[in-house]
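note to self — DONT lose this again. spent like an hour looking for the file last time. sequence + predicted structure for the chain T wanted, 315 res
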Amino acid sequence: MSSLPSDNNNEKDLGIVKSNFICVFSILLFAMGFPAAEYLLDDWDVVSVITARNVFSFILIFFIWLYIDGVQKVKSANWFKGFWIGVMGFGIGAFLILYLQSLTTPVIAALAVATMPVFAVLLEIFLDGRKMTLWFFFGVILVLWGGYIASGASLTEGNIGFAILIGFIGVALFAWGSRATVKSLPGMTTLGQVAVTSFGMAGLSIVLYFIGTIFMDLTNSVSSITLKHLGLVLIYAWLGLGISQILWIKAVSQIGIGIASFHLNAVPFYVMFMLFLLGDNWIWHQAIGALIVIIGVILAQQKSSKKKAEFFELP
């Protein structure tokens, strides 16, 4: 009987490691979307790119959900609440982040995403009653520092002011949407949560597309759709959003939005590593930044896993 607490702790530690690997794989797939989006933005407008991504992603997630959970679960889902979480959190949030990328560069967009731990931690402190520990605070600092180094961006760049503010708003909404998906849709499987919120993302993007086409003449992609574009859309939608979002929400439900958001700061390194495998140069500052992020993640969770009822766990 005396070995039971030790066995429980080992299982808990193993679960934390597994959840972090799920999050890493989610962010790796998410990072694949940045190069694909950049190529699409060379030929398409931002509204068309976000609409194609969200619609194709929802279609994939919906049919996976229908196949695994069945028709009854689909019918009884909280579609209304999930739709509005998807609109406000992931729909508007993701649109603003991509809009930032269209105004600046993928590096600046990645830098904005790297601030998500700040918003995620604040959400957990004010809404979930989390407690900030000294070691967790050090972990946050390391993650932010590592994300900044990995991005290679400079806050003194002339075009970063208003554009980065747009990105910050988008990142804050995305963090809220991630938390709300887990907290406000209880009793649903991860697939169901992702599907109903993705429906909101797709619905908003379709509305924006038609408004942009009919009233503002903002879309110009219909006449320039090729097989290359479709392939990039599928990479961006199915891998960079669809499968990535399923794994992301799974990780958030297990380790919380605060810790999960830490992993986003390694996105610049993942993007660089994939491009390196395709023949580009190795960029050391991104690798060093990613290493600092990893140290920050481990530091925050190591302390939390040893002291109960602190930041990592709900009181």
